[in-house]
Request: fold
Amino acid sequence: MNNKKILLVVLIVLLTNILTFFGASSISMVASDNDTMPEFPEDLQLFNEVLTILESEHLKEVDRNELLDGAFKGMLKELDDPATSYLDPDDYENLKVQTEGLYGGVGIEVFEEDGYVTVIAPISGTPGEKAGLSSGDRIISVDGINLVGEDLSKAVSLIRGKPGTALELEVERPGVDNVLKFDITREEIELETVEHEMLDQDLGYIRLTNFSTTSGQEMEEALDQLKEAGMVGLVIDLRNNPGGVLDAAVDIADKLVPEGPITHITRNEQIIETHESHSEGLNIPMVVLVNETSSSASEVLAGALQDTKTATIVGTQTFGKATVQNIRELSDSGALRYTVAQYQTPAGRTIHEKGLTPDIEVDPPYVAELAMMPISTSLEEGDEGEEVETMQKTLEALGYYDGEIYGYFDQATAEALQEFQEEQGISVTGEMSEIVVIQFHEELQNLKKEQDNKLDRALELLKQELE
Reply:
């Protein structure tokens, strides 16, 4: 059995890459600094000698780029700082998309499965959705360039492009014999980071998925709409929020907390800068939801709301990432991401590697715990073990399986999986795959909304405060 596994929560956030940046300016600012880099120093002559000897005399042919890449990784590893790393050009471009919140493209989420670039889903209202792309589609070429067996990063770079330009996708769709062709015009795709709605009894709900340069404006628009609808209390959901641009967190905090400190930036245990609120705050009861993957900039916001007693924090202990990174663009169009400071809450608390302790702790529901369990992408009938048990529990929670949960992939389990695949519109194989795991995750998220004990507790607290 293939040992490749996918942890469902990883689809939301990769904890090793959780960051807080000084702001979008730090990404664009650094490119102009390259001219001030020092000349090649004498103490690196030994490195150059070793590299030259290996290239010319080693028994095996060596790849210079691979050796250099290994040297970079070894050097950065010595810092014992997982937030400091080298970003290749593709990683750097993806980071800019996340922090800037905008890119030119067709608006589809994709992943790699069995050598094929496969569509998870088109984003609502984008060219990809309008053209008719759907979950499970395999993109085999872009403008005649074959993608079968290629890296996912190559597909992303080909699909993205200047808004207004056209591209042709060739797609294989499960159940359709012919290759489908889609002529699509790229548009500017905005990655929305703020979702909002009005719940019962005039209680507003805002979910922040991450912090980009557009988040502050999105938050202001959401608050305005909720106020117009008569909001008297607010739930802010920071669960599974990995952070992002520090300036965005400060901007949002300025709209919510009263005049005073929001966060202190420190270096060598000395405060070098304090970000402050200059507003009166929102002045309505607020509850903030957090969990173990609320991190970085989301902890800045939650910490400010907690220390100023502007909101009640509900949930589980947060991740505990209180360092700030800068980005310096390199000559190969990649970038160096490196730690430059730490931050403290308004009351001077250092939460790095500790996290924020909620005012009211509420354990996650069973469905949320289920979503955290690892499951193989290649289970098939006859397999057994804990991951089969997890699959059975998932199918049971989603209403597809009512047999015995004992960790053996029997015929009843295969039939339940086939029923799930058929209803989700994906290939009916009775075997696990990455697209099945992704659909499991989507359905568990929907179910979690229906069984959200943290949100229920938050609404209960707001109603009590408003009585």
User: Anything to note?
Assistant: The radius of gyration is 24 Å. The first helix runs from residue 24 to 29.
